[in-house]
Amino acid sequence: MAALYNLTAHELSAMLSRQEISARELTESVIARIEAVEPKVRAYLTPTHDLARQQAAEVDERRARGDSLSPLAGIPLALKDILCTRGIRTTCASKILHNFVPPYDATVVSRLREAGAVCMGKVNLDEFAMGSSTENSAFGPSGNPWDVERVPGGSSGGSSAAVAAGEAIIAIGTDTGGSIRQPASFCGIVGLKPTYGRVSRYGLVAYASSLDQAGPMTRTVLDAAMVMNVISGKDPRDSTSVDLPVPDFTQACRPDVHGVRIGVPKEFFAQGVDTAVAQCVREAIETLCELGATAEECSLPSIEYCLAAYYIIAPAEASSNLARYDGVKYGHRSREWAGHIGLMEKTRAEGFGAEVKQRIMIGTYALSAGYYDAFYKRAQQVRTLIRRDFDRAFSQYDVLLTPTAPTTAFRIGEKADDPLAMKLADVCTLPANMAGIPGLSLPCGFIEGLPVGLQIYGKPYDEETLLRVAYTYEQATDWHTRRPAL
Ligand code: GLN
Fold it and tell me: Does residue 86 have a pLDDT over 70?
């Protein structure tokens, strides 16, 4: 039998409920795996193995008592270290929060705790989720389990690496411009950015509040649906969370794409997209057509301006959100300073990394008097145009299919000195956040041993169609069954 740490949440959930295995056994299997491969993968910033053992024991006791349990009860989980966890250090991979222990749980976290998911620890990311490779982490980059000299993607690279390496069965990532989907693509797993408002942002440390969304990172589409069932829904603590009924997303996981209309936006296959990657995606589209869908080329003309507009809006929001790190109430405080302004200056100079500082400066500039109309306002206008492009496309198509990222995982250090090249890693994913629509990435092939991701865009709140199309493709292929040889 395959090692427990290599199975899916769905498989393990069935084994747990039949009492073929215990949550404790499963947790020990994952802990042993972490001990074996973590020196190479470096996914975890704060492991919580004692807590995991305790939570697993509780699940076993509840099961022995005959309590009815959630399908996620006993399933080992990794949390991106940007989600607040009560009593567990939450760093955002920043020196400025190296000692921050939140007094409360993010809603996503409390829902998973209540479901009985077993918290294996907090995992790496680019500082405050700004980046595409985890190289911006103040604690060093994680390695891609398929080739540890390469990046696992970012910013949720610790989450994708942990799931791909068997160091967790499921993970939560967050996505402001692609940070769930691009690392999922680089590590050969499934990542879903839900519709903006589908999942509560309470306790998710804000990067760009109008774009941020948390979501599942898993080995299979069905596992992603299981996580969505737990984390979705209205939260009175987040006024942007939407009061819509939460369907049973696992019901959407059935192999049926008959009559599904696929749009293939040509802008996502243009220059900069690796031809081998584009080829894998086109083959995936063909597979779906053989299974009963129809596909047609279409166009989203405003996408051309998406990257530029995103890199105004996201830094603008970040410059405002990150103003709270001043060394006064929590987090790092400089030891040497003069006066209260001096305290803030010194603290922020010491605490933030270069990328974060650059974004705060760009954002502050774009929002300042005289530049606001020229930059911020125009970027918001572009955002409206992008949303309209999608509205138009979705009046004709049920889903849009694109590559998730223009390339496979690049080498650690390869793009570190080229900020534009790094930002281009997100060209295919940014539009979902700008338009607020859901996007899912799943594996659709390998190039020279490295995974390729297929991205599926859907209508707002129609995660079910995304899951159904993804599931149908997944069941017709075997990419999701491969595991890296670590
Ligand atoms: N790489 C993009 C950025 O740096 C997106 C990051 C994200 O989605 N959090 O902003």
Answer: yes
Of 150, 165, 147, the C-alpha closest to 43 is 165
Burial class (CB in 10 A: 0-12, 13-18, 19+), 40: middle
What span, in angstroms and rounded, lies between the C-alpha atoms of 486 and 473? 27
Cβ < 6 A, ligand 1 pocket: 129-132, 155, 175-179, 207, 314, 426
Q: What pLDDT was estimated at residue 419? A: 85
Q: Is residue 221 part of a domain?
A: yes
Distance CA 153, CA 414 (A): 13
Q: Is the peptide bond before 239 cis (omega within 30 degrees of 0)?
A: no
Query: Taking a C-beta distance cutoff of 8 angstroms, is the pair 463, 249 a contact?
Result: yes
Q: Would you say residue 297 lies in a domain? A: no
Q: What is the CATH number of the domain that holds 20?
A: 3.90.1300.10
299, part of any domain: no
pLDDT at 14 over 80: yes
Q: What is the mean pLDDT of residues 215-237?
A: 98
Q: 0.70 exceeded by the pTM?
A: yes
Asked whether residue 396 is assigned to any structural domain, the reply reads no
The 10s digit of each residue's pLDDT in 118-169 is 999 999 999 999 999 999 999 999 999 999 999 999 999 999 999 999 999 9
Contacts for 391 with CB less than 8 Å, ≥ 6 apart: none
CB-CB contact of 267 with 304 (8 Å): yes
Sign of CA dihedral 390, 392, 393, 395: positive
**DSSP-derived secondary structure letter, 480:** G
Instruction: Record the tokens describing residue 435, joined without a space.
Output: 């338009």
Ligand 1 center–CA 261 separation, angstroms = 30
Ligand 1 atom nearest residue 433's Cα: 8
For residue 207, the ligand 1 atom closest to its alpha carbon is 9
Query: Which residue range(s) make up the domain with 132?
Result: 4-261+402-481
Strand ordering across the sheet containing 76-80? 44-47, 118-123, 76-80, 170-175, 213-218, 190-193, 439-447, 450-458, 399-403, 261-265, 294-298
